[in-house]
Every structure is written in C-alpha cells, then in structure tokens.
Design brief:
mainly alpha, flat, 94 residues
C-alpha cells in the first residue's frame, strides 16, 4: 500500500512539473525608439566643433595619484588578506 501511495505522489509531481504555465496576460514591453525623442537627444549634445571626450582635462594630479594608489592598494590588500585567510584556514600557516 505504501508503494502505491508513493507512485501516485510521484505521478502527481511529474504531471504538475510537466504542465505548461499559461502565458502572461500583461501587455508587451513598450518599445523605446530614438525617433520618438530625437529632439531631446539633439539638445543634450555639445556644440559643433567641440571635441567631446568622456574624461575632459584638466585633471588634478594629486587627486588622480591618490585615486590610483587607493585603487591599487585596495586590490592588493583584498588579494593578500584573502590569500592569508585561506592559508590559515587550510592549516598551511599557523
């Protein structure tokens, strides 16, 4: 009797897993097209003849130096302390 109950439960689970969910009843996502907002896009562009780069100088050398040193130090520190933690955890260092 236990076997028939187990088989029935497995059959019910398999049928439930195999049935397809109904498709969503919500509307499709709205398509955003450039032609709809072209006027606003053109207004945000730099004037003609302006060499537009993402990072425009002048840069502050002390700020850039501190930022670069900070990023490199943070990366090195994370790698070193991660390695140190694993060495102690696995028993290679005592």
């Amino acid at each position: 009797n236990d076997n028939s109950t187990m088989i029935a439960a497995l059959r019910t689970s398999a049928v439930r897993a195999a049935t397809r969910r109904p498709m969503s009843t919500t509307s499709a996502p709205k398509m955003h097209k450039a032609k709809d907002t072209w006027g606003e896009l053109v207004k945000t562009r730099p004037p003609p003849g302006h060499d537009h780069t993402v990072f425009e100088p002048p840069y502050s050398p002390p700020v850039i130096a501190a930022f670069t040193i900070g990023i490199i130090s943070t990366g090195y520190g994370m790698m070193y302390f991660g390695m140190r933690h694993q060495q102690y955890k696995q028993g290679y260092w005592k």
